[in-house]
Each structure stands twice: as structure tokens, then as C-alpha cells.
Amino acid sequence: MRYRKVPDETVRRMPLYLRGVRVLSERGQSNICSKSLADYLGVSAWQIRKDFSYFGELGKPGVGYDTSKLDKQIRRILNLVRSHSVVLIGVGNLGSAILSFTGFGQYGFNIIAAFDCDANVIGKKKGHVVVDDVSEISRLKKNSVDLGIIAVPASAAQEIADVLVSIGIKGILNFAPVYISVPKKVKIVTIDIAIELARLPYYMSSGQSQGAWE
Amino acid sequence: MRYRKVPDETVRRMPLYLRGVRVLSERGQSNICSKSLADYLGVSAWQIRKDFSYFGELGKPGVGYDTSKLDKQIRRILNLVRSHSVVLIGVGNLGSAILSFTGFGQYGFNIIAAFDCDANVIGKKKGHVVVDDVSEISRLKKNSVDLGIIAVPASAAQEIADVLVSIGIKGILNFAPVYISVPKKVKIVTIDIAIELARLPYYMSSGQSQGAWE
Q1: Is A43 a residue whose pLDDT tops 70?
Q2: What number is the ipTM of this complex?
Q3: What chain B residue is nearest to A74 in terms of C-alpha separation?
Q4: Cβ contact (<8 Å) for A103 and B8?
Q5: Residues from chain B contacting residue A180 (CB–CB below 8 Å)
């Protein structure tokens, strides 16, 4: 399913809504209104309705949303109906943390391989995979992997991204604090942890009110 | 320095600009234009000028920005002129990765303490700190710490946040995939790694063009 002109910020919030719908559903709520979802997630109900409006009518006005239907609809919108294979490059501290993370499965992500250049790490089992030599990435069958996670130092990130693009990766989650150039058809999301921390002090003196999630 | 009505998205991008300014400065550029900064960071020059406009005139029209002045000005805007003390709660895989991370210093962050509830971790040295028992957090002197990083399981995150608020923490970087309620004066930024990954498949079929950073 393809939707044009949907703001990136809306796409960014949709998985958050999915997480909220699931928690409320697990709590036995088979029907929810945007207000209850908003309260649970710490966002505004107006924002949720606005975001949903990009994808047509997801619920019936006044009667709220059927949680199991909404779960399925959001997964369809986000292309999460089928599972996606993921490779991780860089099995240092952060990469090891990612491999031990159990939260990916609920969105249908399978980390199928991990790569590093450190001989002390190659061949070791981490999470569900055995770490391979990074020089082996290019031997992955073309288009056999959907997404890549880059957790290497900044100096190596571009080279790794180029290899990932060459084997047909469609999206990259990058933790290296550096700009990576990729073809337009490849989506890249960068999480620079230091930069996320660096915006907190701004609010220490300004006393601005704000939501808990953005 | 306090600026009202600055969008959160602008504040989010300011540390990114700071990172870019520094790299270009280290490369010997004492004067840069918004275009060269934009090209380096993979954002639009228009966006940079718009973001800067919230904080008055940062450069002279037509002659660009003096990098060392711009560095100082952005740090002043972001309240990064002085250093900030940080505590980390949760020294599992992710917490250990954060403690070993060397990128915080450049923004003036010092992780001064780390806490966990696991007896196998308490007392061990990780990065520059020795891990303390989580029950000791409340013994930190009130207002002696600026920021907190939460890297505990979702089920424990709210309780930890409450303790951090009680000792006067002003901002929280939260990695637990859950909504945390804090007083309005406390800024909280949540990084849910699975959710960041979960928005990539949306772009796999839509073929939308997009920048490398957002």
C-alpha cells in the first residue's frame, strides 16, 4: 500500500501508535478512542487523528477504533505485515546490545546476520547469530536482506553503507555520528545518541512545557 | 539565554549543526556558508537558515558564518557552554555501551555515576565509573545532577524516572520503550530503537525521495 505526501514525522509516529494499540489491546481493550491512545502515549489526540487522516478513515467517527483491526491497518500502512530480514554491522558494545535486544520481534524483524572486523568477535555467538567477518557481507545474496543496522565507528560508516546498498538493502538504521550518503531509493535513519542528549540542556532554563514523546 | 516558541524540531537539529560546524572547522574552514554546512550534513540550506532565524542573526548575509563564533553561539543557545553531569540507570548491554561511548565529552557531558540492581554488576568498573546499587540514587544530593539516562526494562522505567525527578533532574534520555510521565518542567526524550527501525519498511515500496538525516 502506497501513500504519497505523508510527512516523515507522521511515519515516525505510526510505529509508536502501533505499540500503544498493542499494549491497550493486551490490557483487554478491544475498542479504543484516540483520547485513550493519546493519554497512554503522552501525545495529543488531535495529533493522532491528524496522522491517521493521511491514510483514509481508520476508525468510525464517535465509536473509536477496533484495536485488532487498527493493529492490522497500521501494520499494512507501515509495510510490517510480512517479516523483514535485518543485518547488523559492528558488534561492539552497542551492536552487542542490539543483538541481545528482544523488542524487534514484535514488529516482525529478524536479525539474520551480524558482521565485525575484530578477530576476537568473529565466530562468536551473540544473540541468535554467529558473528561473521565483515568482508563476507558482499557475499550475501543480492536482495536477500531488507534492512541494515550500522553500529561501526563514524570513519567506517560510509564504506559499510556502500556495501549494504550494493547488495540491495532498502533501509538503514545508522548509529554512527556522521552523515552517510546513499541513493535516494534507500531510506536512512540516523540515531546519534550524543546529539539526542545534547538537546536536553536547552530546556533546563527555558521552562517550556512539552509532551513526553516526540 | 532563553528563546520562546522555538519548535522542538529546530532544537533537535541544532546539535546536529554544531557537530557539522566542528567537523568543518577541524578541516580548516574558518568561514562557512549555510550551503556547505547543509551539504556536509545532508539537510537543506533553507532549513538551516530557517532554524537559525529563531535565534536572531547568527551570521552576516552573504559572507557566511565564522565557524568558531558559530560554535560558541550554538553552544550558548543550547545551554552547552558549561558542562553537565549525567547519571545512567541500567547497566545492561545498552547501558554498558553508553558508558563506553566516547562521544558525550565533546558536548560537555560527564557521566558521573551509574546504577543497577544486579548484584553481578554493582561494584564493577564500567567506563569511568563504578556501578552503584540503584537504591543509592536517592542519596545523590538534590540538584547535584543535571540529566539522567534510563536504560532499564520498560517495567521499571517510570519508577526510576520518579526517583530522578525527586533528586531534581532536569532532563531524561529514555531508552525504555514505554511512555514515562514526568512533571512539565522536566524534558524527556525517548529513543525506542525498535520503533526507529519499524518506520523503515514504509519507504521500501513507496520510493519516496528523502534526506539522510531527520
Answers
A1: yes
A2: 0.90
A3: B202
A4: no
A5: 42, 212
B83 touches chain A (CB under 8 A): no
Q: Which candidate, A176, A180, A91, places its Cα nearest to that of A133?
A: A91
| Residue A88 included in any domain | yes
Does B164 contact chain A (CB < 8 Å)?
Answer: no
**B26 at the A interface (CB within 8 A)?**
no
Whether residue B36 is found in the same domain as residue B66: yes
Alpha helices by DSSP H, listed for B57-101, are: 67-77, 93-100
How many angstroms separate the CA of residue B124 from the nearest CA in chain A? 16
Strand partners, B187: B171
Cα B203 to chain centroid, rounded: 26
In angstroms, rounded to a whole number, what is the distance separating the alpha carbons of residues B180 and A147?
29
Q: Are B8 and B190 in contact (CB under 8 A)?
A: no
pLDDT band with cut points at 50, 70 and 90 for residue A207:
very low
Task: Enter the pTM of the model.
Answer: 0.89
* A107 and A59 in a common domain: no
Q: Coil, strand or helix: which one is A213? A: coil
